[in-house]
Amino acid sequence: MHTTTRRRLAAVGLVAALATPVAVSVATTSATAATSAAPYCGITWGSPPKATSPGNLWTGAVTGVRAGRHACYDRLVFDVAPGSGRLGYNVQYVDQLTGPGSGLPVPIGGGAKLQITVNAPSTVAATTRTFDDWRTFRQLKSLGSFEGYTDYGLGVRARLPMRVFVLTDTDGGRRLVIDVAHRW
């Protein structure tokens, strides 16, 4: 066999021999990384602001607020009476809660603060609720209702993943649901 041909064949054999272990090693590393990065309880929500268009207004009023504990998250539900339009919202982590209309700071317990705006008026009296022994929620304060928008502050343990969605009741009312994960 010619010397150049032998060198080419040897080089091809060497590349083939090296390629197999490298491919296996990369595949193993990728699988390990994917396994270690698996989200808590399958939660992939993240913590950026969740909002609809500011023009989404609902004529029904907020009639109640309730909270529940689940295996992977704490849940806050705003009950809203039947009305017309589209129920809008703006839920976001803030450095400081502010009162509607006044813009004055409002203190609240917790390592992180969620400012919640429901694009509907409210009939609920101003309330403050403390969540003793809850995994994520710490304190809820109604901040007020101003010009058809209702604001609440929710103190949570830390800046954690959250999701927000609206459900329609059989009577035409709405429920604004906010879930905050127990951890990342």
From TrEMBL:
Domain of life: Bacteria
One Pfam assignment: AMIN-like
Residues in the signal sequence: 1-33
Keywords from the UniProt entry: Signal
Residue ranges constituting the AMIN-like domain according to the UniProt record: 61-182
InterPro entries according to UniProt: AMIN-like
Record-given protein name: AMIN-like domain-containing protein
Native source species: Terrabacter terrae
